[in-house]
Design goal:
The complex is a heterodimer of chains A (223) and B (265). Chain A is an all-alpha fold and 223 residues long. Chain A is 80% helix and 0% strand. Chain B is built from 9 helices and 10 strands. The radius of gyration of chain B is 19 Å and the shape is globular. Classes of the chains: A mainly alpha (223), B alpha/beta (265). The interface between A and B is medium-sized, with 18 and 30 residues.
C-alpha cells in the first residue's frame, strides 16, 4: 500500500481569516467561561464549606449535578431544553458559555473547598484567640494561604475549560473547530484543516501548561 | 480582695465524656497560677473554656467583676449559643499562647503582631506597628520583624506568639504547654520571657510540664485530676508536701529520671 499524501496547506493559508474568526470566538468563550466558572466556583466552594445548611445543600446539589453529567450533554441540554423552560431566548453561543461555565464552576468549587480545608485548624484557633470574627479569619488568615495552594490545580482547570470550548461546535457555534469543519467542507481539506486547529490549540495551551508548572514550582517552596 | 477572674462551677462534657466536673477558681490580679495534671485531666480544656475556644457546658465566668459567660446547667443538653461579637470582645481581653505557636505563615513577624490590633481593635496601622515593635523589643526580636515565621527557630516563633497576644493588651494570659513543642535548648528563652511578664505583674494561667519553672514562678499550683481541682497551694505545698496520693504519684513520675544531686552522690 502506497503511503503518499500530498499535504496542501494553501487552502488554509488563503482562508486564514476563517480560522482567525474561529479563534476569536474560541477566545471569547474561554474568557467568559474562565471568569464566570472560576468566579462562581469560588462561591460554590464557600457554600460547600459553610456551616449553614441553606448554603451547603444547594451548593452540593449543583456541584454533584454538573460534575457527574458530561459537559457535552449539558451543552446540548442548555441549547435545546433551556429555551423551552425559560422565558428568554438562549442562542448557541450563550448556551455553550453557560454549560462550560457551570462545568468549570462545579469542578473548581471542590478545588477551592479543598484549599480552604487544607489550612490547619490551628490557624483558625489562633485567629479566634485574638478575637477575630469568622469572616475576618477567612479573609485575612485562611484565603491568603489557601490561594497559594489552589493556583496550580485552578490553572489546570482553566486549561480544561479552554479545551471544552471545542464542544460548542456541536451546536454550531462558530468557534475554531467548527470553522475548520466548514473550511474542510468547502475545500475538501479536512486533514490540513484539523491539523491547523490542533497546532493552534497547542500553541495556546502549551504556554498555559508551562505557566502552571512554573507556578507549582514557585509557590511550592515559598514557605 | 476582688478577683480579676472568677470561675464558678465550670463544667464541660464532650458527649457523654465529662472532661471538667466543676471548676471553681478565683484568680487575683497579677497572680501566676500553674496548672499541673496528667494528660486527660482536663488542663487544656480548662484553659480553652476560659476564653471560650471551647464552650463550657455550664458554669459562670466573671472577668473584672463583669459576667462574661454563663451557662445555667441542664447538663449536656444546654444549648446556649453565644453571639460571636461577645465572644470576640471577650477573647481580646484574654490572651492565649499555644503549644504549636500558630503564627500566621504568610505574614512577617511584625504583621503577625499587628494583625489583631488592626482588624479587631481597629488601631491605626502606625499605632499598631509601634505597639508591635514595643512588644517585640521586650521579647528581644526587634531584629527579626521583617522575617517570616518559617525562618525563625521554635523559641523565636513562640516569643513572637507571646508578643502577638500581649499587643492586644489582655487582662489575663493563658499559656497552654507553650514549651512542649520546643527543643530542650530553646525552652529557656521562652520561660525567661514568661518570667519577666510575671515580674511586670501580668495575671497568668499556665499549663506546663516544667516543674522547676512552676516552682520558681507560680504563686499557686493547681493539681487537676479527672476534671476537678484535686489539690492547690503554694509550690512548696504541692511540689514537696502534697497531701494527695494521686499528686505524689504524678510528681514521682516526673522526678523518676532527674539529675542526681552532686553533693549526695
Amino acid at each position: 500500500m502506497e503511503f503518499s499524501y500530498n499535504w496542501d496547506f494553501n487552502s488554509i493559508l488563503f482562508n486564514w481569516d476563517v480560522l482567525a474568526h474561529g479563534l476569536l470566538v474560541t477566545m471569547q468563550i474561554s474568557a467568559i467561561t474562565l471568569t464566570a466558572g472560576l468566579g462562581f466556583g469560588f462561591f460554590l466552594g464557600l457554600g460547600r464549606y459553610s456551616r449553614l445548611q441553606i448554603f451547603r445543600f444547594p451548593s452540593n446539589v449543583f456541584v454533584e449535578l454538573f460534575r457527574n453529567v458530561p459537559a457535552l450533554v449539558v451543552i446540548i441540554w442548555f441549547f435545546f431544553a433551556f429555551p423551552i423552560i425559560s422565558p428568554f431566548e438562549v442562542d448557541a453561543f450563550t448556551a455553550a458559555c453557560l454549560a462550560i461555565s457551570v462545568n468549570t464552576a462545579a469542578f473548581s468549587a471542590d478545588i477551592y473547598r479543598a484549599g480552604i480545608q487544607s489550612i490547619s485548624p490551628h490557624q483558625w484557633e489562633a485567629g479566634r484567640a485574638l478575637g477575630m470574627p469568622y469572616l475576618t479569619i477567612l479573609r485575612r488568615i485562611v484565603f491568603p494561604q489557601a490561594i497559594k495552594r489552589v493556583i496550580p490545580p485552578l490553572t489546570s482547570r482553566g486549561i480544561e475549560a479552554v479545551k471544552l470550548s471545542t464542544l460548542a461546535s456541536v451546536i454550531a457555534v462558530n468557534e475554531l473547530l467548527y470553522s475548520a469543519k466548514q473550511l474542510s467542507a468547502i475545500h475538501f481539506n479536512p486533514i490540513e484543516a484539523y491539523t491547523a486547529v490542533a497546532l493552534i490549540f497547542f500553541m495556546i495551551i502549551y504556554p498555559l501548561t508551562r505557566f502552571s508548572y512554573f507556578l507549582e514550582r514557585r509557590l511550592g517552596h515559598s514557605d | 480582695m476582688s478577683a480579676i477572674l472568677s470561675i464558678k462551677e465550670m463544667k464541660k462534657s464532650f458527649g457523654s465524656l465529662d472532661v471538667l466536673k466543676g471548676i471553681d477558681l478565683e484568680v487575683k490580679e497579677s497572680e501566676t497560677i500553674v496548672i499541673l495534671g496528667a494528660s486527660g485531666s482536663g488542663k487544656s480544656t480548662m484553659l480553652r473554656c476560659i476564653n471560650f475556644l471551647e464552650m463550657p457546658t455550664s458554669g459562670e465566668i466573671h472577668l473584672n467583676d463583669e459576667l462574661v459567660g454563663t451557662v445555667r446547667g441542664k447538663g449536656e443538653n444546654t444549648n446556649i449559643t453565644y453571639r460571636e461579637s461577645d465572644l470576640c470582645s471577650l477573647r481580646t481581653k484574654v490572651g492565649m499562647v499555644f503549644q504549636q505557636f500558630n503564627l500566621f505563615p504568610h505574614m512577617t513577624v511584625l504583621e503577625n503582631v499587628m494583625e489583631g490590633q488592626v482588624t479587631v481593635l481597629k488601631r491605626k496601622k502606625i499605632d499598631a506597628s509601634n505597639r508591635a515593635k514595643e512588644q517585640l523589643g521586650k521579647v528581644n526580636l526587634l531584629d527579626k520583624i521583617d522575617q517570616y515565621p518559617s525562618h525563625l527557630s521554635g523559641g523565636q516563633q513562640q516569643r513572637v506568639a507571646i508578643a502577638r497576644a500581649l499587643a492586644m493588651d489582655p487582662k489575663v494570659m493563658l499559656f497552654d504547654e507553650v514549651t512542649s513543642a520546643l527543643d530542650p535548648e530553646l525552652v529557656g528563652e521562652v520561660l525567661q520571657t514568661i518570667r519577666s511578664l510575671r515580674d511586670e505583674g501580668m495575671t497568668m494561667l499556665l499549663v506546663t510540664h516544667e516543674l522547676g519553672f512552676a516552682y520558681h514562678v507560680a504563686d499557686r499550683i493547681l493539681f487537676l485530676h479527672e476534671g476537678q481541682i484535686l489539690e492547690q497551694g503554694t509550690p512548696q505545698d504541692i511540689l514537696f508536701h502534697s497531701k494527695q496520693a494521686r499528686t505524689k504519684e504524678f510528681l514521682k513520675g516526673h522526678a523518676a529520671f532527674s539529675l542526681p544531686n552532686p553533693e549526695t552522690d
